[in-house]
Design a protein that fits this description.
two-stranded antiparallel ribbon; 12 strands; alpha/beta; Rossmann fold; 479 residues; flat; 3 domains
Length: 479
């Protein structure tokens, strides 16, 4: 991805410089020659982050897109076209003679940039193909976790499908009594806890998990150990379907396997995410400023006390920060109700038993909180009480999209694997909010957060942001 971004940056500078050269230095057009000035180069430097963002939105840095020339070509054409339209719009708004009056520069720049990007993508794809062909010369050594029915069935499918380039070198299982036995001619060499050592001793390339009995927590713990070792992990069948719902799927002789290797967001990706946060937060602050004033007035009229509610929350890596919200509760309220709610929610207990009797579904949020004011109930129903958190985004404590920040006493009830959601900067919205919100149990909420953290992309942020809009307006799952 970083190589692709670097190639796109080179194409941007090369294309615009070539366009300027054709227009002013070849003698093909009338008029005095014009030399490159410092403002021309500084304009390109300022344009570069936006250029990368436009390419990211068009999916040009996603691994699956980068493996197909046709998808890349279509994406490059769209991204370069949109980028040049943005440049034209900037020229119109700023009335600069570089991009507005000399439109032939932009026309030639478009052509050269498009050509350079397509060439760069072609050679990058060729390099990826050559590396894949070189890697395919030897069979991939794999360890299967699970010596039961699913693991045995998966071994049979790997063995009977001649097109697969896998060699099963060992099994591990959660049952100690199976250690030393064999599945076919492959030995069970250890228990799940010894997986990293087994992988090293057998020089395995991949781990395939085919053992549903581990459950969510056990599977996540094992995944974490493999990910820290940099080893690709794949889940066989629909184990932990929530965390792999939209990830890369490879079908092996009819059996779906899901790639859950954790890479997270690279440093350049974090920079892009921060630029995205600043842009969106600034725009929303301007758009909603009149609404801010109106809500503040309503709170003052119908409830004595401050407009904003400030609370210390746990941010990225557990760092303290003060989160802002519109106040929705009466003054001097007891937090014992929320403490009980948090304890039950994290433990996975339904919270509103009367509502559960009516619709037979689990409700994981308080629906009748006596502390909430009438105006506060409306704000919570529409999630408008969250708007002041845009200030936290601008300060850098929060992101537009990410896990919700917990209160510190909630952390006392976290299991060890729950704390992995603190790896990311907390957000205003996230996968949990657009996946049912109050109907999603805490364990599944954490799984959604972990999936988002390990598979972040700018496109994912945009999709979640746009999916949040109808959820907010419908009040779905909010109280």
């Amino acid at each position: 991805m970083i190589v692709a971004m670097a190639l796109d940056a080179v194409a941007l500078f090369g294309g615009f410089l070539a366009g300027h050269w054709v227009r002013f230095s070849t003698g093909l057009f009338q008029g005095p020659p014009e030399f490159l000035r410092l403002e021309h180069l500084s304009t390109l430097v300022l344009l570069l982050p936006l250029w990368i963002v436009i390419h990211g939105v068009n999916g040009l840095y996603r691994p699956r897109v980068m493996e197909t020339l046709l998808d890349q070509a279509a994406g490059v054409i769209k991204a370069v076209s949109l980028g040049c339209l943005v440049v034209l719009a900037l020229g119109f708004l700023t009335r600069t003679d570089y991009f507005f009056e000399k439109r032939l520069v932009l026309l030639f720049a478009f052509a050269f940039t498009l050509l350079l990007e397509l060439l760069g993508r072609f050679f990058l794809l060729r390099a990826l193909w050559l590396r894949r062909i070189a890697g395919a010369r030897r069979r991939q050594r794999i360890v299967i976790v699970g010596a039961g029915v699913e693991g045995t069935r998966f071994l049979t499918r790997v063995r009977t499908n001649g097109a697969l380039n896998y060699e099963v070198v060992a099994f591990v299982d959660d049952d100690e009594e199976k250690v030393g036995t064999s599945v076919g001619d492959v030995k069970v060499v250890g228990v799940v806890d010894t997986l990293p050592e087994v992988v090293r001793s057998f020089q395995a390339d991949q781990v395939f998990v085919a053992i549903p009995s581990l459950g969510q927590e056990g599977t996540l713990a094992m995944m974490s150990r493999c990910m820290r070792a940099g080893l690709p992990v794949r889940l066989v069948s629909d184990i932990l379907h929530l965390i792999v719902a939209d990830t890369a799927v490879e079908t092996i002789d009819g059996v779906p396997t899901y790639d859950i290797r954790s890479e997270g967001a690279p440093q350049l990706g974090l920079l892009i995410k921060r630029l995205f946060d600043l842009s969106v937060a600034s725009l929303l602050m301007l758009l909603f400023f009149p609404l801010f004033l109106f809500i503040a007035l309503l709170i003052k009229i119908f409830s004595p006390g401050p407009v904003l509610f400030r609370q210390v929350r746990a941010g990225q890596f557990g760092r303290e920060f003060t989160m802002c919200k519109f106040r929705t509760m009466k003054l001097e309220t007891d937090d014992s109700i929320h403490r009980e709610y948090a304890t039950n929610f994290i433990a996975g207990k339904p919270l509103d038993f009367e509502d559960q009797k009516k619709d037979k579904s689990q409700v994981f949020k308080m629906t009748k909180d006596p502390r909430i004011t009438p105006v506060g109930a409306i704000l919570r129903r529409t999630s408008l009480d969250e708007l002041p958190q845009l200030l936290n985004v601008l300060k850098g404590d929060m992101s537009i999209v990410g896990p919700r920040p917990p209160i510190f006493y909630e952390l006392n009830h976290y299991k060890e694997w729950h704390k992995k959601r603190l790896r990311a900067k907390p957000g205003l919205t996230g996968l949990w909010q657009v996946s049912g919100r109050s109907t999603v149990p805490f364990d599944e909420m954490v799984l959604l957060d972990l999936y988002y953290i390990d598979h972040w992309s700018l496109k994912t942020d945009l999709e979640i942001l746009f999916r949040t809009i109808p959820v907010v307006f419908s009040g779905e799952g909010a109280y």
